[in-house]
């Protein structure tokens, strides 16, 4: 099948003042959620086409560089020391181990390599051990992303100096629902870390998790928080909760898949220039559901058989799916597009 290569010409000029807002009211967002699905998808697809090639998907691979025994109590997370999961804790991987994984991801077609550590925050010593990993992965020609927990201003500056492209730090849910999921750090702590990352000039990757038992208002309020940041995150991962035995959220009622699609569409409309990533949870999604998410404006995925500690679809399944949908892997953004 030949993928469509033509990008639709913008119907209106693509200026910030016209399309990119930072003053969304919750009522406006809930009105979008309430829109008949066909209308919502049509609007999201129009917004998407004004800002992106609709047939290209950004592809990132993940590696857990330090697994388990995390002091935080995030209710969804298998890596929290507060929960009794089957996970083996592991020390920080060596530079060689990281490079082997990055090269393999690159050979499979990933253009960004994301390294995650189960830390509340990195110590300065640990940060210096991650710096050579960032430098080495970058030297392969891949974009780099790390997620290490909370950062100070000087740590963010150090990561920028190391050449880091993206820092992932999620808001996870609405400010109102947050306290029922995590007690060991505040929403404000997360916003401060995002500010340090932004101020250091590192691209921000920030999103959340759906399907944790939150209401539609909470989903809307999460997207409102993200869209009303001083600048939109360049990357917005929308995770569907991966339920892991031994975590407090194991057994929570799964989210209606159509509501998940609606959430993607609303994220696309609120943050027109952001890469919206269909993140954790794809393993349990049908090809048709994923296709709807792409139509709703998701244009990025985690690719590779492992997320951090749980499984992701096999690369052959993903390759087959993208081929059937006529979607192409995007080259590294730095090669193809000006900064957002
Ligand atoms: N410890 C760092 C932190 O929390 O910022 C970095 C790693 S942490 C695992 C990164 C993100 O993974 C979390 O913020 C959360 O959004 C997501 N995550 C963790 N467990 C998940 C699960 N079971 N299902 C979906 N997303 C999950
Ligand atoms: C994000 O939003 N999702 C990724 C990444 N950022 C670090 C992590 C998903 C983790 C899913 C559960 C696991 O594999 O441990
Ligand atoms: Fe620790 Fe991050 Fe998991 Fe929370 S999400 S328990 S901070 S690894």
Offer a concise description of the structure:
The protein has 13 helices and 10 strands. With 340 residues, the chain is of the alpha/beta class.
Q: Could you explain how this protein is built, in words?
A:
The two termini are 31 Å apart. Helix content is 39%, strand content 14%. Strands 1, 2, 3, 4, 5, 6, 7, 8, 9 and 10 form a ten-stranded parallel β-sheet that branches. Helix 3 (37-51) crosses helix 10 (257-270). By secondary structure, it is of the alpha/beta class. Bound molecules: S-adenosylmethionine, 6-(5-methyl-2-OXO-imidazolidin-4-yl)-hexanoic acid and iron/sulfur cluster. S-adenosylmethionine (SAM) binds at residues 70, 76-77, 79, 116, 118-119, 147, 149, 169-170, 172, 209, 239, 241-242, 244, 280, 308.
